[in-house]
């Protein structure tokens, strides 16, 4: 397993570096905001940027995970080695999952410190509540599935962005049309469970696609 772990690390180290850069950038923005005269406007801009983060993770992390090796045919080389394709995919997915959850938790902690005392829960829900972790996991899982099913990076990115936007818009419409939902203390956990369930279903689908590619069907 050490060889597989090293191979997976070599493939995904850029993801780790990018994740650290994202967290550092948002942390820096949060620090600067606390020292700006127009801190509310700056906080609003950072909140908008953070709200787009799950989609960015899905597009730039999730979609290329399988689409890139499939498109440039390095998957054929990887999967003809001694490591079974499903095992390789599982190892790659674990690394991506840890990075995704780590970034989501770090950004949530930073924004909680920066925004929580300045805005009410309605405004910060998407970036401060635990639901934000579900959004990130769903977006990345959507990207992984799109990459596995399409096998080309750019189309998978486009599909990921469009589907994520539609699903999130639909979820937002439900919340706005049912004002009583905003007063439920368990709403973030309900969303976390819902988006986490969707993410699990998409990952299961990606495993099926990867396994079927191995049978030539």
From TrEMBL:
The chain crosses the membrane at residues 12-32, 48-67, 88-115, 127-149, 156-172, 192-211. It comes from the Bacteria. Keywords: Membrane, Transmembrane, Transmembrane helix. Coiled coil: none annotated. The keyword Coiled coil does not apply. This is ABC-2 family transporter protein. It comes from Cryptosporangium aurantiacum.
């Amino acid at each position: 397993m050490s060889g597989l772990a090293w191979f997976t690390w070599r493939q995904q180290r850029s993801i780790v570096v990018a994740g650290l850069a994202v967290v550092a950038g948002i942390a820096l923005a949060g620090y600067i905001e606390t020292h700006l005269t127009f801190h509310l406007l700056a906080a609003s801009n950072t909140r908008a940027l953070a709200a787009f983060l799950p989609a960015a993770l899905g597009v730039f992390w999730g979609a290329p995970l399988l689409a890139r090796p499939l498109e440039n045919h390095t998957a054929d080389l990887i999967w003809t080695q001694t490591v079974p394709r499903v095992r390789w995919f599982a190892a790659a997915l674990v690394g991506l999952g840890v990075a995704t959850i780590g970034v989501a938790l770090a950004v949530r902690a930073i924004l909680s410190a920066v925004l929580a005392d300045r805005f009410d829960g309605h405004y910060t829900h998407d970036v401060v509540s635990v639901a934000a972790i579900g959004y990130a996991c769903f977006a990345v899982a959507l990207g992984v599935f799109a990459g596995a099913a399409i096998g080309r990076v750019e189309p998978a990115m486009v599909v990921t962005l469009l589907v994520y936007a539609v699903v999130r818009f639909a979820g937002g419409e439900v919340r706005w049309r049912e004002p009583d939902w905003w007063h439920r203390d368990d709403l973030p956990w309900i969303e976390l469970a819902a988006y986490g369930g969707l993410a699990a279903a998409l990952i299961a689908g990606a495993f099926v696609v990867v396994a079927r590619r191995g049978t030539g069907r």
